[in-house]
Records
---
Amino acid sequence: MSVLRNIADGLRFLFRKEQVSRELDEELGGFLEMAVDEKMKRGMSRKDALRAVRLERGTLDITKEIVWSARWESFVETLWRDLRFAVRVLRKNPVFTAVVVLTLTLGIGANTAIFTLIDTVMLKPLPVPNSKQLYRLGDNNNCCVMVGTQDGGSFVLYSYPLYEHLRDETPEFSELAAFASYVSDLSVRRETDIAAQPYRGEFVSGNYFAMLGAGSFAGRLLMPADDTSGAPRAAVMNYHTWQRRFGADRSLIGSTVNINGVPYTITGVTAPEFYGDTLRSDPPDFWLPLAANPDRWLFGAEPEWLYLMGRLRPEAASGQVQARLTVELQQWLGSHREVIPERDRNDIARQYIRLTPGGRGVEQMQTNYAMGLRLLVTLSALLLLIACANIANLLLARGSANLSQTAVRLALGASRSRLVRQMLTESVLLALVGGAAGLYLAYVGTHAILLVAFRGAQYVPIEARPSLAVLAFALLLSVATGIVFGIAPAWMTSQSYPADALRRAGRSTVDRSSVVQKSLVIVQVAFSIVLLIGAGLVTQSLRNLEYQNFGFVTEGRLIVNIAPSLSGYTADKLDGLYQRLQDTLPQVPGVLSASLSWYSPLGGNNANERVFIEGKPPDYRWTAPSWDRVGPHYFETIGTRLLQGRTIEERDTPAAQHVAVINETFARRFFPNENPIGQHFGMGDASHRGDYEIVGIVEDTKYQDARAPAYATFFLPLLQSPPGEPVRGWVGAVELHVAGKPESVEPAVRRALADIDPNLTVLNMVSFGEQVARNFNQERLIARLAELFGALALILACVGLYGVTAYAVARRTNEIGIRMALGAEKKNVMGLVLRAALGQVGLGLAIGVPVALAAGQVMASQLYGVKSYDAAIVGLAAVILTACALLAASVPAWRAMRVDPMVALRYE
Amino acid sequence: MPMTDQSSDLVQGTLDMLILKTLALEPMHGYGVAARIEQMSGGIFRVNAGSLFVAFERLQRAGTLKGEWKTTENSRRAKYYSLTERGRKRLDSETREWTKQVAAIARILEAS
């Protein structure tokens, strides 16, 4: 009640200030008059009485001030006045205001963008209820299909029978679900479609959605009953796929579509925010029951291809469950020794399961980006510090320049706290404006960052919407920045003694603030050189990655990914298809040569298989070599050089002698001191050691990991299966060497493919360069942002140096005038100014370079082909910084040179 | 300019209570209240205008006082303050509390 009245009275005061003020005047006047009357009654003269009353009771004005400042609304009033004053001041100094706001925008924008990125990529849990109860069985992201014991003993991939065992034996999970560790290509055709369309799908266990607790947008999600071999085939569609590719057609739900040639009922659509178990570009379009997977061999006890994730009951302790799972795993492996290859059996006792929090799903991106984002956070924090130093400097310079004005205000009775408060208001106002602009920049920036991070994605499952947390972060940051850089100048101003300040205004040579300013510039230079060197290191690392010798040529190459298996082809029809492709494609105008392969380099696919060399004992020291199936002219088409022997040619048909081409590493590893040509080897087991004859050696080529040395690799003809085994040589990629830009032949290639078979599923077409570039999305993002931050830091440091130098010149105009009057030459004066600036830069470099070198040590493991102490990068960064700094300082130096002694001496 | 302010020893609550007590007898203007407090305290308390009017404002906003413009006996316009119902209650409770505290303090001081 009284609070309300208080507010009401306060508001009355604010809006009817005149009247309230008049009333108080009258009341106080009456009060003092009555006191005077009283004194006069006791015989005082009016003059004495007035004086006595003033002494005893206070004057009218002071009393008014006391009453006024006791009201809460007086605070609002002062604030409002300060704000209006601040706006006026800032508008009178547009250049200053613009520089400060811009600096802040960049500093805050960069930090908010990075924080938004971290929030969306690193911190956001899966959009499902109680995500904290979710746990993953495994602690790394090894993929796809494996056999035997696992990397370092930590189990991540599970076979289907092992999954069933763990699911049934671990009651601490309310649900334990399994899903394929990879997304599969699907070919989907509605009855109304002429041709099947490529989509992406994930095979999941029937309790997958129950485990996640995900809800549907429409219809129902998969249930355990869908995941049995006899059940009618059911599929769930991604909301975004439904929206973008099916026009949100309600009639689709409950209807039947043809997936990989089998009719499925679409039971429902997931919730809009749901993207599955892994944050990645292009999440699955469909979720299908495990039992629907056409690759029946995957359900044996050998292949390990499933990720497991479960929802732990609230009362269960994860540590105990983890121990229990390891025991169950060991028991199962012990009782299934026959599925573990001989070489791995001794490792069974070392296998374990680590339970890791699964609230963010399979943390693929999170793991990939962790180090890079840490680096970016450091860089952006440095940038913000530089920005703050800059602004502090600007405010400081201005505060010093306004010294005489401040002195006058102090002399006229302004209290120090009022002065400080007024300056703080100004800084916080600046910070808020900068913060708002920074938030906008962050919004735009995060969009751009996500585009770089998810390059090549058709759909990105997360939005760059600054969350409430980010908003709070930006606001806090901007206000804190405002206070930090506001306090220093305000405090210094309040320290000045009016008389003192008035006396020395304009003519002083000693000034405490100039020491602070110079220190700030030195710090800025130091931070900038750290940023520049850091940016240089990651940029060089990216360049080394992108322009390394891959063992193939990307220019003028187009990769077409196809999926004959999804288009109804059976193994016996492949030969005909491949013949037609090989005959037709080179005829397409612009195509110089064409070839086929199982998969293409750095396209995300890799297969490996243990080999047995004829005449040599089995050698388990090496990881199994990689292999690929390739058609005639393959190596010429992708630009891999033949070193010895011949490549795979048209004559290498299924009926002909089985041949293989190997790469240098394969040759070096398995035939260290002999000629591999003419030697034989095979896959599977020792009985196959005579299957393939080596006919050629090609240069090393990177297929899987661009950072690691090329794997030992062998290449087989498309359709030469080991003797006695059915022909299976599915082609997934068509390589084209074209004249001119690869994209320009796309339409013609598409037409040619449609002529060959309109039903052939074309998954995508991409230039070879782009396919390779997508391997470096993360490095590129980090490098581009680091470069951007480095450039901004450079600009800010130069602005800071310019500001301080210009200010110093302005302050020393007097002194310079005297020097010149006494005979100093212009170049001496210029040297004087430049020397001071260079001294600061030199000190900054002396501090920054060792820091950068130390930081380089920390980053070294993330860099490719760059030494942490790369002298060229350090030198280049130092030269760039010094050159820019000299340029920035030379403007005021030139101005100093042109000082007219006569004017300067009179200057105040 | 320094001010003599002999009521500065008064804790905030005490001035409020004294004002309420003074006004409990009859509505009075500001000077009347100050003069009455000084007179009744035997000149020990001197109330300056600043503290007094801040207190008036505070008490008005708390709903314990209300002000009304009237003409004084010297035919001057002045704002007369009077207690509201809430003010009367507050005076009662504060008096009781004060008596209790004074008695307690006295007991402590006597028990040497």
---
Amino acid sequence: MATQVAPAPAASPVQSQSSGLRMWLTTVDHKKIGILYLVTTLLFFLVGGLMALIIRLQLASDNGKVVSPENYDRLFTMHGTTMIFLFVVPVMAAFGNYFVPLQIGARDMAFPKLNAMSYWLFLFGGLGMYSSFVFGGAPDAGWTSYPPLSEISAGHGIDFWIVGLHVVGLSSLIGAINFICTIHNMRAPGMRLSRMPLFTWTIDVYSVMILAAGPVLAGALTMLLLDRNYGTHFFIPSQGGNALLWQHLFWFYSHPVVYVMALPGFGMISEIIATFSRKPLFGYKALVYSTVAIAFLGFLVWGHHMFAVGFPEPLNIWFMLTSVAIAVPTGVKIFNWIGTMWMGRIRFEPPMLFAVGFIGLFLIGGLSGILLALFPIDQQVTDSYFVVAHFHYVLGTVPVFAVMGGLHYWFPKMSGRMLNRSLGIWSFWVMFVGFNMTFFPMHAMGLSGMPRRIATYVTHPGWVTLNEISTLGSFLLGAGVLMVAWNCLSSLRTGRVAGNNPWNANSLEWYTTSPPPDYNFDSLPPIRSERPLYDLRQAARAEAGGGPTG
Amino acid sequence: MIRRSRRSWTLLAALLGSALAYLSTAVPALASTSQLVDPESTNAEAINQIYRAALGVTITIFVLVGGWLLYSAIRFRERPENADEEPPQTHGSTRLEIGWTVVPILILIALCGYTFWKLPSVEDVPANHINIHVEAQQFSWTVTYPNGKSNPGAKITLVAPVNTPVELHLNSKDVIHDWWVPALGQKVDAIPGQTNHIWFKATRTGIYRGQCDEFCGIGHADMLIYVKVVTPEAYRTFVNGLKS
């Protein structure tokens, strides 16, 4: 077995957590805020998932009558909005909050009170949006809210949506500034940028992207709010406005957001693959550069969401070329991950299963993305279920596999206890099969002409069977999510005590106790590479005069 | 340690089992992804050719990369006999990394090149086409034929002659809609304040189904399109018989 590195002298292995309500309401500790973010976002995930299951029930047969078209429109609007703005983007802030200061050897975030503020803004923004179900009729124009439809939508659902997004957006802007200040100013001695763990790197890039894109969405939302309530007509063509202006602004924000969601997921996967292959990352620098390249290219491709609006051909060609270009750095990532596994001694603990599953499924989403970037194909299948399949293979894999992998990986650090291993493995396989059953048939639905966002469909050869498979799969996926939830809840009490470093990982968060005490570290090891704990074990081994065993 | 080896076999069995279960459910799905809806128009056929070429390339990549991933996962899993031994600590290989940056670039250039080559047969409207105007509104289509007449409220949205290029000019009265008849090629949005154009040249008579493809409100699912492709003589008779 590996040489046991002397633990940092700190509190007892499982720290007794005071769980007073007052403590949670007033905390400015980055770890407690991280937990608040995590619990809140996972609850939003369950709500968003529940809405997806109702959608799937409605579509399980032709002429579905589970919900009315009005409610169906609200459901898919809030499913998309919830998953993107209230789950996947902020869940990265949850892990970022908890682990960025730990990974760089800092005591806390740069601005702890601002950090608390961004959490509470997020919570109230999200709840405010949901309160529309009670007060004003929920938003019903899709998570993209294209005008003029969103202009003429009755009731105040869209207004709640706009104001809620403004508040959530402010929260993520504040969070981004905090992350950037923390990462660039508070690294421990020796923790150069070139030695930072990949997850921290991706959170850095995530924050820069939010800062660059967020204000554009805020501007567009404000224009829509003014149009709806105060007589302006930015997006109303009959009064001199332009309906496509919204799409340009919206996608200028929302395409980079795809990478805002995906990149930290890539960061988690990079950490997990290296840890369980027991090797350093293959091509650390290439992984960092490709992250930056994806972020940069991500700002040049928004028009590929608009290939059907009647662009002049040169514009279509430009957006096709920039979009396929993203495949190159993405490919580099996948190859470097497999390169990391190559010749390793891979331990298939649950986090590693999720990571390998993620790579395989993300590959499918990436490749269907190439098909969609070739605009004649996109003009055939955009806004059909083919696109729904594509973006769930890209963005659904991030929460279901990367985030779940990260959760299984870091749960011992956050709680001090291990998750149940066999339940973890079972939940992976249930989710893996469920995910593919849900989303793979959607490719075929789209190719055979099924548009997205339709509340019902008339009988059409093949559609019923495909939709039945998909609905069945979605419930399996839901069952897998519940298994993970059960695993987390029950392991909090009964899980095996984890110790500082149950996976023999090499970044600094594993140096301190699980969970870490206030202010994280009493002392830090010397940081001379991107794997300080590996160096420490090597040094201990050399001192003991041991042979080259792991 | 023996426990660990048994675990990896269980893992393999689970992997194979779920792959089989998955494939059996995916057969109907897989069978119909090999091409687009049977193309019945020359532009749709060109799109279908691009799709099949790109699909061939991407499936090949999927099999190679996915196979490499699966092989690495199984081949390099920890076994009882090597669990204590540290694997080689390689940090990367510039030559390999340049390789797997350049090769994808070449593949993508080839794919884009093929798309460019096919582009004229997707985009360019043949000469001597007939022009038909389509106005969308929540939740119906109004088609105006070249003689200025239309047929509002009919079950058949559009009647078109076979083997004749038809260019549609679309706009919208209220919100954004989208005209999509899969067998007749690409879609285009109908947007208030601007006119968009698509064309088709149907190769067979028959009725082709489509529907609005841009979410346009509660009636979105009911905004169907039926295009009836008839002989040129039947088309002329139909258009001349229109009242309004």
